[in-house]
Amino acid sequence: MNPDSEPIAGVTTPEFARFLKVRSFDLCTPDDGWKPVATMTFPLRFQPPCLVLDDKLYVLGGVSASEVEAKGYGWMEVYDPDSNTWEPLPNPPTPFEFSLSAYYATLDSKKQILVAQHDPAYYATLDSKKQILDEDASLFATFYVYHVIDRCWTLLEPPKRKLRPYYQDPVRGRRSTIVDNTIYWGFVLDGIVRVQSHNIDTDLYFYGCLDIKPIFEDGEFAVESCPKLPLPHVADQTFCLLMSTFVAKMEEEDSGEDSDIELFEDNGIIFLNCIVLDISLNPFKYEGKPKSKEEVNEIYKYNFMGDSSKQLNISLVSIQKYPVRNGSFWLNDAVLLDRPTYMPMKKTPKLSHETSVVIEDNLRL
User: Fold this and answer.
1) The pLDDT of residue 9
2) Strand runs (DSSP E) across 85-168, as ranges?
3) More confident of the two residues 27 and 352
4) Domain spans in the chain, listed from the N-terminal domain onward
5) CB 335 within 8 A of CB 233
6) Could you tell me which of 364, 332, 52, 54 has the C-alpha nearest to residue 174?
């Protein structure tokens, strides 16, 4: 949905209009391909984060504040596939100027949507003639909850939480995973899986890491410039981290011929890695044991600070690699599908879920 078009540009070309279309794909009838659905109430959205709750699609933000503030609704809207209709929903109490700088998740059992955003580091004085820098403000986030049944917003108590400090965060603007009221984020940086979780009931956060460089082949490295994906929850404390890697060609394999194919494909091949991890909390790992200087530096380097930080145990369950033959696209999202909903009954396996990926072209979805 409109992945690369600026909503404020005011462009009305046929090419721009094509970006505004929303399509659906029915896994029960894959031969039918992608079908157009109804247009959003506020279609000029720029990369809106998406959530699914009770078989309905929610899109959040990605629209100019001036367009929705006056009306009091429209920052978020919901799509019902049964009726093929979009409905704008009430705006949150505080405007979210940049939807790509917030966190999003669904509390399925409570029929709620959780939205969090870092507090601004600058705030205006009473006379609004200058701004004052509050260095500690950006270390806090405010959590809002949208109640689907009551159609209203509330603050999640305590409203101010010292969660993720304000730095170049690779998981902002992405759908987060919640298991037992604990939010999980995960990504790969410098060949190391880094996971943080936050329990919204106890207001405690946890951090863990796992060095996965030993699983790389010779000449293989992680492609960290591609979009960071959500961390799909498979079952219990098992999660699936999707990562792209590049394996360089051996010198003798290089024909030396010129090619118009992208640089990566000229010099090697890209793999999609499905890394299955077991992530659990070990509250006794550091209890009564002082952290080493290296451990303290690691925590502060990536801004996982505070006495409440406890270590997560992360272990590798399995890994599968799939070659990606066309380097002109990146993975943009990943969702967990209920396998029996789209497999014939006679072929339904005992496993209840499988991971599926949504691939986004560099230009369009």
Assistant:
1) 43
2) 85-90, 102-107, 112-118, 122-124, 131-133, 141-147, 152-161
3) 27
4) 1-175, 179-365
5) no
6) 332
Q: How far is CA 230 from the centre of its chain?
A: 4
Per the confidence metrics, is the pTM higher than 0.85? no
* DSSP string of 149-207, one letter each residue: TTTEEEEEEEEEE--S-SS--TTTTSBPEEETTEEEEEEEETTEEEEEEEETTTTEEEE
Strand partners, 197: 184, 206
- Tokens 């806090």, located at residue: 140
31 or 46, greater pLDDT: 31
Q: How far is CA 271 from the centre of its chain?
A: 20
115 token code pair? 């939205």
**∠ CA 173-337-150, rounded to 5°:** 60
- What are the CA-CA distances from residue 97 to residues 8, 65, 92, 233 (Å)? 13, 7, 11, 29
Rounded to whole angstroms, the Cα distance separating 330 from 124 reads: 40
Query: Tokens 């502060």 — which residue?
Result: 300
H or E element in which residue 298 lies: helix 293-301
Contact 32, 26 (CB under 8 A): yes
DSSP code at position 251: G
Using CA atoms, how far apart are residues 198 and 114, in angstroms rounded to an integer?
13
